[in-house]
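ERR on first pass: missing label on line 2. Operator R.T. fixed the label and resubmitted. Corrected input:
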Amino acid sequence: MATAADDTGGELGLLGELVGYHLRRASAAFAVDFARALAGTGMRQVLFGILSVVSVNPGINQGAVGTHLGIQRANMVALINELVEMGLLERKTSDGDRRAFSLTASRAGSAMLAECLVRIRAHEAEMLSDLTPTERTRLMELLTKIRGKVA
Amino acid sequence: MATAADDTGGELGLLGELVGYHLRRASAAFAVDFARALAGTGMRQVLFGILSVVSVNPGINQGAVGTHLGIQRANMVALINELVEMGLLERKTSDGDRRAFSLTASRAGSAMLAECLVRIRAHEAEMLSDLTPTERTRLMELLTKIRGKVA
DNA sequence: TATTGTTATACTCTATAACTATA
DNA sequence: TATAGTTATAGAGTATAACAATA
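pass 2 clean. output:
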């Protein structure tokens, strides 16, 4: 009986045996469909992630958001600027620390988050339509067990 | 009892409920460690993928390799050039079709493939060290079930 | 007409180093 | 001296459109 684990003779060669490869392809497929699902909103994977983190951590600063999401400080700047210019985030100098910015989601930001979530749930349902609910839960659990994946 | 599926109160917000997010983070973590594992060889994820596909499909052309790996023709050009210039691939005009190139792995290419594979197996073992053998197989199976992930 | 490879181009994501202003 | 944010920059991955040679 042939299983996925001894698929050495496939068109991919030994590549087909590697978890990392399938992870990369699956992630890329998700990214493409995510973009399709959110087309017209101006939102992307990273922006949605930031908006989500700020929403549950009102008053959080850029660096902390980046830490949660694995985004470097330097790269946060332009992303936060985008969200502020889109009117989805509000940025004011932090009360306690005048170096830092306090970030909160605007009403438009909360509405955008809700709208995106509806679309994203449909997108995930579609991408995972070949998996049973149990399998989806299991996949999530296994993914969170991967080394180096802190958050 | 709290499970990964109802992690709405986490620091990530609703993001933590999304399979796509965990897929993206896990894939990124794999990519970073893959690069570390292959440091000094000059190889990257994409180049290794191409070398692997050509190795099991001697005489294949660029377009077909791209189709297997989900890489567009236009982007294949520079990648194949790299591998040829590294001496890992041989490229000659195809016998049957003078538009196409016939690709084969050189001896150096085969050696590189073998060397990379040793390193990659160690890298995968490390990244998946919190998963049992059964879980690793299951993860692979679940990943290949994801919609849109053709190869 | 369709296909293979090619060039040009642009956008996103990510990474590093150096700077400023505060702490 | 350490930290928050910033700027500049560079590399890698990916996307589209248009072209030449060949089928």
